[in-house]
Protein 1
Amino acid sequence: MFKQEAIEVIRKAITAEGILASAQHRDNYARVWARDSMMTGYAGILTEDEEILAGLEQSIITLAQHQAENGQIPSNVVNAKASYGTHVGRTDATTWWVVVTCEYLKKQESKVLREQLQLQVYKALSCLKTWEYNQRGLVYSPLGGNWADEYVTSGYTLYDNVLRYWALKNTAEVFDDEDLKTEAAKIQQLIQENFYKNNSDTLKYHETAYAKTPPKPYFWASLNANGYDIRFDLAGNALAILLDFELDFKAFSVFLKTVHTEFGHWMLPVFYPVIFPHDDDWRLLENNYSYSFKNEPHHFHNGGSWPIFLGWLCLGLKKRGLPEIPVKILAQYEALMQKKGEHFREYYSTDELLPLGTEELCFSASGYLLMTN
């Protein structure tokens, strides 16, 4: 219904430097953001849109040109100036760049571009290796160190580690690297064993915390020295499902339907449950912002609904042969866009279903393309 419009929103955001975050070309969004341009480019790969693919290639090159000495990919680039994060660095800028660069190389099969980027891909993986800190396999992200930069998750996060696994897996495939293939398999097992309750007798990353943590029908959000954050991270779970991690999908589907019943709609919150001022985690939220506070209950990262990650969830569930919930999510999103007359806004509040944030956001247009793929 809105597929061509979504493609046009992305096309309008393409510049000589690459794909900007929004077709609006304003404020902080008029930059080539690593995670935004890479996810948008992935949608271009799925839709086989040549104009978006050309924008993706330029995004890849622009970000690579500003790779830091340690291999880190910048969070964003504007006017040939790179930023690696404000309060903290962004772990997922580097992982998303490797993941989608490799996806693009698989599609384009350009020997010249492959040789041009190989050193930088491996340098980025080396940087990620240093972020393990303890050399035990999981990367560690600081508070505010990924896309949810004003939220409360930190440490060994599900989302960042699944992305790191995907980066290793893709690099091993593109460059026919058996050592990386073995490393990727080990990290996949490490994530599976440590973020989901199981009966395995393998040694856990944090034995005491693991033993005390109750099972959930999804992968836990993160692990820290002080234990697990057991909230539901929709983005991390969506990517894990897409990448063939194992869940009890019957229980997972029941959980999603329970959340739908609680909220009364299928615009599922990106993190759940919602944090309120009386909750302990509120203190981690209230000062964690750059321009203005956005994380009121049911808003932004704090229980807001983001079409981009609903798109990844739909893509993953459909890949696993579970189309029922994706169909409902897509129908809900299309109905909202028709009713509100606001297309591809950044997120929706989950209490009133208000379309909020930046307009004509490539993130949201890409989410719709992922839903409809």
Protein 2
Amino acid sequence: MNNTIDRRALLGSAALLAGCATVRPGDATGAERAFVRREGMRLMVGDRRYRFVGANMWYAAYLGADAPYGDRPRLIRELDALAAMGVTNLRILASAEEGPLRNAIKPGFRTATSVNDTLLGGLDFALSEMAKRNMRAVLYLTNFWEWSGGMMTYLSYVNGGRYIDMNDPAHPWPAFANFNAQFYGDARAVGLYNDWIRKLVTRTNGVTRTAYAEDPTIMAWQLANEPRPAGDVAHAVLPQFYAWVQGTARLIKSLDRHHLVSTGSEGLKGSLERPEILLAEHAMSEVDYLTAHIWPNNWTWVRQADLPGTYARGEALSREYIDKHIGFARQLDKPLVIEEFGYPRDGGSNDPAVATQYKDRFYRLIYAAAERDMAAGGPTAGTNFWAWNGEARAQHPDFRFQPGDLQYMGDPPHEPQGWYGIFTGDTTVRVVADHAAAVARLPAAG
């Protein structure tokens, strides 16, 4: 694949976006620009219930950077395309720890001893452009997984350089996750992480000159992407994990009185399949809402080589997973956001020319469940699909990201480029837009 956008893809995108919401930069009302807050199971903006249709776009700060690896014109085009679909919320990477891990994105936001001010400027620019389109951001502050450095890299900063690469045959699962869990009890590693939080949460946007803590474009700070207490129960030191969750959330709240805080958890899967862990982690008063991620292919609920034969099982398990998390949210009296869900293209292909029949069907399942719960006044507040690939195209025939590649897309560097993300021209664009229209029709007081 090359990095040019062919005419067929552009025409397909135009057709799929026809009739979607138009973009009117700068038309936000005072109510729309108020902060999102929580009232029991509801997210609110002013006196209106806040519901959203969102996307994951981890790489927004990279495109926004004024650097050779940035592409501000593309970022603007991608935000316009998402806004036209009705997407109003983006979940964005706000930290990447540069270090020894094989598959971690470079450059990072930080090293052990330095900060990448250019990449922070890219985040500033992305937030400023989102504000023009009435979008809100969820910013996650580190990663349990290796593709942005994350907790393993923090540990390497303080333990003499020791680490494990994910998917290393010499250290099969769950060795990576169990090693990673040492982070929660390592005061030096957590101290470096807390230093980053202080720097970011107290930052002033260099474009808008608005302090992050005073910017309603930000909906929530998130402790990490998919933090797990360990890879298995035997290695989970739960008091350390809970102390990290509560301590981090309290630190953020002490620096920022306006914004919500969430964990970034997968939900039950990220809680070692133990409801008591999920409930304990999210019952803390400092945590404002529950998150759930749904990955039928990663969790072997379906097999991408046989979607026709396995889809029904994955569908049933996905419905059950959603229902369980709606129940957990009701028990906690907190909102629920289904903030990651992904599905492969037909046949497990990574090629944007291949159809997305089963992906579209899966998205409709997620969206129908969210719409039903929203209409019933339930805790579901929003959805963020994983992820937006937009106009990016893989640079290599094997669909693998290589150092120096600049066609950032929602599929992170350690995964095949095109595996789960939505490209311009995909029929999934219309599925998202239809869901956004349905959510927009719901009563604001529901």
Protein 3
Amino acid sequence: MNFLARIQRPLGIITLLALGASTWMVFNAPLDFQQGNSVRILYAHVPSAKMALFCYILLTLSSIVYLWKKNETADILAEAAAPVGAAFTAVTLASGAIWGKPMWGTWWAWDARLTSMLVLLILYMGIMALRNALDEPLKAARATAVLAIIGAVDLPIIHYSVVWWRTLHQPASFGGSSGNPSITGDLLPPLLAMAISFILLGGYLVVLKAREVEAHRQLEQLDVERMEEDD
């Protein structure tokens, strides 16, 4: 975890600069001929959705490594990824609702993409609740790892929902069935810049949370050792 301590400050500076530059690009981008000014919401919505998935991928991979190697660092990363991913998922759903009202005429529709994204948020919340509900750290780590791995089945459903089912949601902005972005022209560079900024932001938040989790575990271990000495 010393590596995370070393990269925290430079990563934070780079993230701040990237967010500033990409935000400037977003507010200087042209309006969409159909969506008008509402298109700017997508510059936060799309990167948030991608980061919600990336965080769950990190959570799943860390859970697999923990169950396989019993590596505490992997469990720390899994615990750190859950709240960060939940936050990005909540931003995705909120920004999607704000965009959907003028575009679809409703805040919410039980659309395949929206519903599967809501399931992802429930999975994140369930994983965090399960870890907090179990007093035994090893049991909590194993239980949340298993739940995270099982919940990963939702990821391909989210990604391919606009292909498998008839849906109100627009095609994937990146990595669609054609492999080309559905947003092109002058609207694409700000979206790419914001996507990179959100990746940096997600990484920075995971680093912060991982260091907090590690410090909390160290304090708990010290408390246990102190109680044993007193006995």
